[in-house]
Design goal:
Layout: H1 6-12, E1 21-22, E2 32-42, H2 56-62, E3 68-72, E4 78-80, E5 83-86, E6 89-98, H3 101-114, E7 137-140, H4 146-149, H5 153-161, E8 174-175, H6 179-194, H7 198-208, E9 211-212, H8 217-235, H9 244-247, H10 263-274, E10 278-281, E11 285-289, E12 294-296, H11 298-329, H12 334-339, H13 341-347, H14 353-372, H15 375-389, E13 402-404, E14 409-411, E15 419-420, H16 441-451, H17 456-468, E16 478-484, H18 490-500, E17 505-507, H19 522-526, E18 533-537, H20 547-554, E19 559-561, E20 569-571, E21 576-581, E22 590-591, E23 595-596, E24 598-600, E25 603-604, E26 609-615, E27 644-651, H21 666-675, E28 679-685, H22 691-699, E29 704-707, H23 713-716, E30 721-727, E31 731-740, E32 751-759, E33 764-772, H24 785-810, E34 816-821, H25 836-839, E35 846-849, E36 856-858, E37 867-869, E38 872-877, E39 880-887, H26 906-909, E40 917-923
Parallel strand pairs: 8-9, 16-21, 17-18, 18-21, 27-28, 33-34
Antiparallel strand pairs: 1-2, 2-6, 3-6, 3-7, 4-5, 10-11, 11-12, 13-14, 14-15, 16-26, 19-20, 22-23, 24-26, 25-26, 27-40, 28-30, 29-30, 31-32, 32-33, 34-38, 35-38, 36-37, 39-40
Length: 924
């Protein structure tokens, strides 16, 4: 459709639309063919100040020469997602035709980077726009198109450098949490460079403008005064220190000017200035010292290059100013100097020609620095510096006697008297969450007496064990198992120690220790490098330990590991491994054939809890005596958080596909992509003719895993399937734990599917189940009322038994979410023998969630019935549901539906969903 006038635009945006051509008219990045227009969202959520909101008038000032069209969105001047009413627009920029989805997406990203008020969540090549009746439209004529103005290469370079974190690049901003440290370090640098001068303070304040949110003036003043005090006390008195006046006296050679204007020349100066706080290893990528410890963070490395470029820019401008002043002092008029070196050569005598050439060099230097401030050159400087700052990963966290805290680095051989200043040369990448102190000591001691029933010998023993975890070396090759019933303090105790140790402590999934672990555990192993305490919790009952893995984790042999998408490396363990669980059935645990683990059991009276120390070898060292006190006086609070996942259940009405000749409608694919759930349950699914295309577009191309992937026995029996899908980045599938019911016309089983998942964030198990309770018994249409009543009762009993079957399959699992079509209140069941209340089958541990409204609605069916019921529900065990709702918006997106309601002719509706979508947030 071609639009050139306001009237045409107003009419065009009334309908849902896209701004590109796609293969088969199916919207998707993989189907992108071409586009000659870029559409951007303006939601004005970048500020809560109305004066800062973007309006149509402001856009004309921002893009005075640009051709574009503007239309208000459907939420224009209305509240949206917790934000107040404000102007909201869609802006359409004509461009030269693009046939590459990646180029198209990069253009949108570059545009958003240049103008951050555009929505950063709507930048792909498959953008979908809801239709709206627009009161405000604008056609702005211009002589330029946006693609002539925007440089896409910056985005491409950024993605090459950091494809994993491209969306999180700070764009030069100093974000909250790192502002004070960054500004303190920068203050120190400019003071070394310029001394205590107004120029140094101005450079400091200019750099502070990058803080987001801005630091208060009082805070900046405190940081600056503290840096000046440190400069006077420590830097000036250092041996070999050269005052700024002497250091900068010779203007013929600027201190930050590269030997040659190349990537290598720039990288050499960068390393000279920032080499003490930038490192690189092939196993970790970039690291930067933040004043306390080294951080694995590419964006912090880019931030260091940007800081360097700020200093270099000031240096280049200073050199130009010095040479210009020298020319003025020699009697050259200021107007002649401003005319440029070429004109000066015509005017000055031979004695001043060297100064003119110096001005040429200074201006060339300034142009070089200004060009190098483009992002692609920032990246190239960082990449070129890699060999110059490269170290071995084994150099990190090498000194086992040092432990780093926010206050100081402690030498454990000297105890609390061994505090040392933070030193980048220590190459420490870890830091505790708090520093040693007496605050909260009594609370902690009271907690220990509660946990261990005032058994002082046991408290002393555990204190030595915890103190041992402070050392970065394995002195005793053992694994500690803490076990006992619930609410006895074992997880509270170890989680407190875990939080106090900060990132010296780590978690290891219990699955990684078991025989049945099928996945690659090397990335998990890589995270153990430099750790002092590793906790693995709540192993599933009946699982067998993988003795080879346990021995490796508890020994002093090198571990082979690799971070995702990084080079492999090896390291010597430095940690203590703790496993805690509810039960330990065997008192003697066999490893391989001949080795038996010795165990030391200590019963805790009144708590039925045991701490078992499994000894492989028994090394003692006097060095342990020095570290018994360092940790046990520390205290930290325990916080609980819940993760939120979007779950979706939908009966898609493929029950009529008995011969497999139906096609899953495009509506179905489109709606699932729009809803974008984390977990999806489809009931009345069937392997239609285009099932493989459906799987590819909806799941494979969008990083979902799903089950089943091929026909089951139910397809052969001409019965419905259940399909469950989940996001790969959020959940792992426990192998061999997908279970479905085989349904026949005789066995009275429901459509049922169970998948056993592991939540990646917490490594906890979650069982997802889909269910459809079948009709079970036909009701005689022409029978007597008594015959119908008996049929209803018989039908209800059969459905009840189907639910009992479901609960039987789920009884061994601790955490469950089940969604589906329970067929309650259905087919004129006036007696309500099978209703919502009976779905739980008296299982008190389960909870049912039903939104307001109805999930099924039919008028004038071929059965002569009219009904609307809530038949789709979520049922959970040990997890919560929030914001549940029935969504029928899909009926507005296809011509098979009229006026937002299902058509009455079932034959015509065959294969089109007749149930509402059930959506909710799952809290874990």
């Amino acid at each position: 459709m071609t639009v050139s006038t306001p009237e045409q635009l107003r009419e065009a945006v009334k309908a849902d639309h896209v701004c590109a051509e796609y293969k088969g008219n199916y919207r998707g990045i993989g189907n992108f063919i071409r586009s000659d227009v870029i559409i951007m969202d303006i939601d004005n959520d970048h500020s809560e100040e109305p004066a800062e909101w973007i309006t149509a008038e402001k856009l004309e000032g921002i893009f005075p020469d640009m051709e574009y069209m503007l239309a208000s969105s459907r939420h224009h001047l209305l509240p949206k997602e917790g934000k107040s009413a404000r102007p909201r627009y869609h802006i359409y920029f004509p461009i030269s035709e693009i046939t590459d989805a990646e180029v198209y997406g990069n253009l949108k990203k570059a545009l958003q980077k240049e103008y951050p008020f555009f929505d950063g969540n709507a930048l792909d090549a498959a953008r979908f726009i809801f239709g709206a009746d627009c009161e405000e439209v604008l056609v702005h004529d211009g002589w330029m198109t946006i693609d002539e103005e925007i440089d896409v290469s910056q985005v491409a370079e950024e993605e090459d450098f950091d494809s994993e974190d491209s969306e999180s690049a700070s764009g030069g901003q100093i974000l909250e949490g790192s502002r004070n440290n960054t500004m303190s370090r920068f203050a120190g640098r400019v003071l070394k460079r310029y001394g205590i001068t107004e120029k140094a303070h101005e450079a400091f304040l200019e750099h502070a403008k990058k803080c987001d949110p801005p630091l208060p003036e009082s805070e900046l003043k405190t940081i600056w005064n503290s840096a000046v005090k440190f400069f006077k006390k420590s830097i000036v008195n250092q041996e070999g220190y050269v005052p700024p006046d002497e250091y900068n006296a010779d203007f013929e050679s600027a201190s930050l000017k590269p030997e040659d204007y190349s990537d290598i020349g720039q990288a050499k100066v960068l390393v000279r200035e920032y080499g003490n706080e930038l490192k690189y290893t092939s196993a970790t990528d970039f690291l930067r010292f933040d004043g306390e410890c080294w951080r694995e963070d590419k964006q912090m490395a880019i931030g260091a290059v940007e800081e360097f470029l700020d200093l270099q820019l000031q240096d280049a401008m200073d050199e130009v100013a010095r040479v210009e002043k020298a020319l003025e002092d020699a009697g050259v008029p200021k107007e002649s100097i401003q005319a440029g070196p070429k004109e000066l050569l015509k005017e000055v005598d031979g004695k001043l020609i060297p100064l003119v050439y110096m001005l040429m060099g200074a201006q060339t230097y300034l142009k070089f620095v200004q060009k190098r401030r483009d992002y692609k050159y920032i990246v190239s400087a960082a990449n070129t510096a890699k060999p110059m700052i490269a170290i071995s990963v084994s150099d990190l966290d090498k000194n086992e006697n040092l432990i780093n805290t926010p206050y100081a680095t402690y030498d454990l051989r000297k105890g609390l008297a061994g505090d040392l200043p933070h030193n980048p040369e220590d190459l420490i990448t870890k830091i505790t969450a708090c520093s040693p102190g007496e605050d909260g000591k009594q609370i902690w001691l009271d907690a220990l007496n509660l946990f261990f029933c005032k058994d002082q010998k046991l408290i002393d023993y555990v204190q030595e064990t915890v103190g041992m975890a402070a050392i970065g070396k394995v002195y005793q090759e053992h694994m500690i198992i803490a076990y006992g019933g619930g609410a006895n303090g074992k997880s509270t105790f170890w989680n407190t120690i875990f939080r106090v140790l900060g990132n010296y402590a780590g978690k290891l999934s219990a699955e990684a220790l078991t025989m049945n672990c099928k996945r690659n555990v090397k990335p998990e192993m890589a995270e153990l490098k430099g750790k002092r305490l590793i906790i693995s919790s709540e192993m599933e009952e009946g699982m067998r330990l993988n003795t080879a893995v346990v021995k490796q984790l508890c020994s002093t042999d090198e571990i082979q590991a690799e971070k995702k998408y990084k080079d492999p490396f090896s390291f010597v363990p430095s940690h203590t491994l703790v496993l805690y669980l509810e039960k330990l059935k065997q008192k003697r645990i066999k490893i391989e054939n001949d080795t038996t683990l010795e165990e030391e059991n200590v019963d805790l009276p009144g708590m039925a809890s045991i701490f078992t120390e499994l000894m492989l070898t028994n090394k003692e060292s006097d060095e342990l005596k020095n570290i018994r006190k360092i940790l046990v006086d520390w205290k930290n609070s325990i916080t609980k958080s819940k993760y939120r996942y979007k779950v979706m259940e939908w009966n898609i009405n493929q029950a009529t596909n008995k011969n497999g000749t139906n096609k899953l409608p495009n509506l179905l694919m489109k709606e699932i992509i729009i809803q974008n759930p984390d977990i999806l349950i489809l009931t009345e699914f069937s392997f239609c003719e285009n099932a493989s295309e459906f799987f590819k577009k909806v799941f494979d191309e969008r990083n979902y895993d799903y089950y089943p992937k091929e026909k089951t026995k139910n397809t052969k029996n001409k019965q419905n399937e259940i399909l469950i899908a989940w996001r790969r980045e959020l959940f792992d599938l426990c192998l061999d734990k997908c279970m479905y019911s085989v349904v026949t016309f005789e066995n009275n089983k429901p459509n049922f599917l169970l998948v056993d998942l592991i939540e990646k964030k917490t490594r906890q198990e979650l069982v997802v189940a889909g269910v459809r309770i079948t009709m079970a018994e036909n009701i005689p249409v022409k029978g007597t009322e008594d015959e119908k009543k008996k049929a209803y009762q018989k039908q209800a009993n059969k459905r009840y038994k189907q639910m009992q079957y479901v609960y039987k399959q789920l009884e061994k699992f601790a955490r469950v979410i089940m969604g589906g079509d329970f067929n309650n209140y259905r087919r004129r069941t006036e007696l309500k023998d099978w209703n919502i209340g009976r779905i739980l089958c008296d299982n008190q541990e389960y909870k049912i969630y039903t939104p307001k409204g109805q999930s099924i609605k039919e008028k004038k069916s071929i059965r002569g019935e009219e009904y609307e019921f809530a038949e789709d529900h979520f049922v959970t065990k040990n997890c919560e549901i929030d914001n549940e709702v029935y969504d029928r918006c899909f009926v507005f997106r296809d011509e098979k539906y009229i006026n937002g309601e299902d058509l009455s002719d079932w034959n015509y509706l065959s294969g089109y969903p007749d149930h509402a979508i059930l959506i909710a947030d799952l809290l874990l």
